[in-house]
Design goal:
The chain is an alpha+beta fold. It is built from eleven helices and 13 strands.
C-alpha cells in the first residue's frame, strides 16, 4: 500500500513522537498550510546531533571524521585546527539550533507536488511565530526535481547552501540498458536469491544490523542511526517499503524505499560486508531499486555516494542545496550564514563537479 503524501507525513509525525532514531535529538511537530501537512523539527543546542536535524554536524562532524584520510600529518593538524576554530563561529550563527521544515529525517527529504503552489509566506510566518530566533532550513533541493520551488524561494530571500552532489534517474521514456545494467538485472533474476518483505522481529533486527554494517561501521557514525523500532514501525505503517535479500535462507542484505507522490529515494541500504565481493550484494539490491523506479515510473533520487557506480547506471548528477531563511536574524548571524553560503557556492560546488563526487 502506497500512502498519499498527506498520509505519509501525518503517520511520520506520529512515529517520531517515540524518538525512534538513535542519536537524534529534536522535537517534531506539524504545521498545516493550505491543509497540507508540513512536518518540522526543532533542534536544541547540543553537540554531535544527527545531521538530518543539525547542519552543524553536516559541515563539521563529517569533516572531522574524514581527517584520517589526510596522510600528511602537518596538513591534517592544520585542518583539525581550522575545523575547531570554525565550530564556535558556526555555533554562534545557530547552525546547531535550527528549525527544519518538511523534515522527513531521511538522507534525502522529498517534496510533495503540493509544494508547487504552497503558500510559502504563510508557512514562514507560522514557523517564525513559533520559533522566532531560529534559522529556517529546507534540505535536499535540486534543480532537476524542484526548479519551480527553488525559484520561488530565491524570490523570497532564502539563501542557498551547497550540500552535496546527488544522482537521479527520471527519464524512463529515453531509458535503455547498458552493459552494467544488463548484468545487474541478470543478478536480480537469479533464482537462488529471493527478495521478501520483512515480517518478523528477527528480520527487522537483522535489517538494522546490515544497515549499521554499511552506513555506520563502513561509512560514517554520523549517518542516521535508525533503530529496530523505527524499521519495524515504518515498515508496518507503510512509510518505508522494506525488504530483505535472502540466499539459502540467510538474509544478507536489505533496502528500504520511500515514495512521495512521483518521487522515490532509498534511505535504508545495507548488506553483510563480511561476505565476499563475488556475492555482488550492492549490485543486487541496487538493481531492485532501479527496477522498482522503472516499473512505477518514479523519479529516483539515488542520493550521494558511489558516484562512478551510479553514473555507470545512467544516473544524472545534480547539485543539492539546503535553502535557509535568515532575514529575521541579528546582523552578525546573517553575515556568517551568507559567508558560508558564498563559500559553498564558489569553492565547494566546483570541487564536487570537478571530481565528480
Amino acid at each position: 500500500m502506497t500512502l498519499s503524501s498527506q498520509e505519509w507525513h501525518q503517520t511520520f509525525i506520529t512515529l517520531m513522537q517515540s524518538n525512534p532514531i538513535d542519536e537524534c535529538t529534536a522535537s517534531f511537530g506539524c504545521y498545516y498550510i493550505d491543509d497540507v501537512a508540513i512536518p518540522y523539527s526543532v533542534t536544541p543546542k547540543i553537540p554531535n546531533n544527527c545531521y538530518a536535524v543539525s547542519p552543524m554536524t553536516l559541515l563539521s562532524g563529517y569533516a572531522e571524521e574524514e581527517l584520517h584520510k589526510v596522510k600528511n600529518v602537518a596538513v591534517r593538524w592544520v585542518c583539525k585546527l581550522l575545523i575547531n576554530m570554525t565550530k564556535p563561529i558556526l555555533s554562534l550563527a545557530g547552525l546547531d539550533q535550527v528549525q527544519t521544515l518538511n523534515n522527513q529525517c531521511l538522507s534525502t527529504n522529498m517534496y510533495s507536488e503540493q509544494w508547487e503552489s504552497l503558500n510559502l509566506d504563510e508557512l514562514r510566518r507560522v514557523a517564525l511565530d513559533q520559533y522566532p530566533t531560529f534559522p529556517l532550513v529546507l534540505r535536499s533541493l535540486n534543480q532537476l526535481q524542484y526548479s519551480h520551488l527553488i525559484q520561488r524561494l530565491e524570490q523570497q530571500q532564502w539563501q542557498s547552501l551547497v550540500t552535496r552532489q546527488v544522482y537521479l534517474l527520471e527519464d524512463w521514456q529515453a531509458f535503455s540498458f547498458n552493459r552494467d545494467l544488463t548484468k545487474d538485472f541478470k543478478l536480480f533474476n537469479d533464482k537462488d536469491w529471493q527478495f521478501k518483505p520483512l515480517a518478523t522481529d528477527e528480520e527487522f533486527q537483522r535489517a538494522k544490523a546490515l544497515y549499521d554494517m554499511l552506513y555506520l561501521d563502513k561509512y560514517s557514525r554520523n549517518n542516521i542511526q535508525f533503530s529496530t523500532q523505527y524499521l519495524k514501525q515504518a515498515s508496518q505503517n507503510n512509510l518505508v517499503h522494506l525488504v530483505g535479500l535472502f540466499y539459502q535462507g540467510e538474509m544478507l542484505a536489505t533496502l528500504g524505499i520511500v515514495e512521495i507522490d512521483n518521487d522515490m529515494t532509498c534511505p535504508i541500504f545495507g548488506y553483510d560486508t563480511n561476505k565476499p565481493q563475488s556475492f555482488a550484494l550492492y549490485r543486487r539490491i541496487s538493481a531492485y531499486t532501479i527496477r522498482h523506479a522503472m516499473i512505477c515510473q518514479r523519479r529516483f533520487n539515488m542520493s550521494s555516494g558511489a558516484p562512478a557506480f551510479k553514473r555507470n547506471r545512467k544516473a544524472r548528477p545534480e547539485i543539492e542545496f539546503s535553502y535557509v531563511y535568515i532575514a529575521h536574524l541579528p546582523w552578525y548571524k546573517r553575515v556568517i550564514w551568507q559567508s558560508l553560503c558564498w563559500l559553498t557556492q564558489h569553492f565547494y560546488r566546483p570541487l564536487l563537479m570537478r571530481f565528480q563526487l
